[in-house]
Hints:
2 domains; 63% helix; 312 residues; Four Helix Bundle (Hemerythrin (Met), subunit A)
Amino acid sequence: MVLELFSKRNKPKKDTDLYLYDVLPNPFRVQVTYLFNDLFGKHGEKLRTIINVDDIYKELVELLARDFGVYHLVENYIHEIHGYNSEYVNGFLTEKNVDRAIDYIELAFSISNNIATMDNYKDEVELSGFNKRNETAIKELNYRFDEHNLGYQFVEGQIIRRDNTFTHSAIIKPSLEILSRKRFKGASAEFHKAHEHYRSGKYHESLNECLKAFESTMRIICDKQKWAVRDTATASTLIKVCFENNLIPSFWESKFTSLKTLLESGVPTARNKLSGHGAGSEEKEIPRYIVEYAINMTASMILFLVQAEENL
């Protein structure tokens, strides 16, 4: 059986990113071994009532060793003495090649996910609660990736690099490149803070930093173009000035009605309604997906505004 694992689908990338790709901290690795145990038990006992397998770790070791072209995942290991569980876990903990270490995670989670979603095992999976354990483990794995600022996510049965997604490569990274310019230093710091808060689960703070980065970008453009704006100008005022000065060409104005609405009500409204004013004594809970959308929208607007300025 030939495996199409993570290390074969990805080539090393040298460019800068918000996330780390070339290191897996030891605390993260240890946390993942807990997830292996949550899914399978120490010797696969949590799967024995579902599928006919004596030791899921034996299957994992043999599949990975075959694909790596080795006899043992850990040097001088004797299966009969040390056990397959110990070999798989220690192989993962000591693997120096990050892509191969990711292979350990992906293989275990993809097999677990397949079992949890296969019709053949539907009754057994529901009865044993394995599907719930699988969902919980995937959720925690993705949380751990975020917690350690790692640019990976387990999505639809496999691990992907964030910089391989369309949104990240077409919107986030070009925006970061623009913000790396000296005059956008303040906006860059705010946008990075928005990501830091997002990864830490501080969603109100993340939305606030998104708005600051959005406002800072417009203010920097207005200052360079010598368009009069007060230092206290809000997003709504800055947007108005940008339109009045044809940052968006006037002859396209009818086609950009929807874009103008987005600029005026998108990020600022998200901040004001969910995070900014009138929260009262009890702060409203903000769903993660709204914050992720706000970050992507902010990046897209920053990219658009700067490119529009370059074409004035």
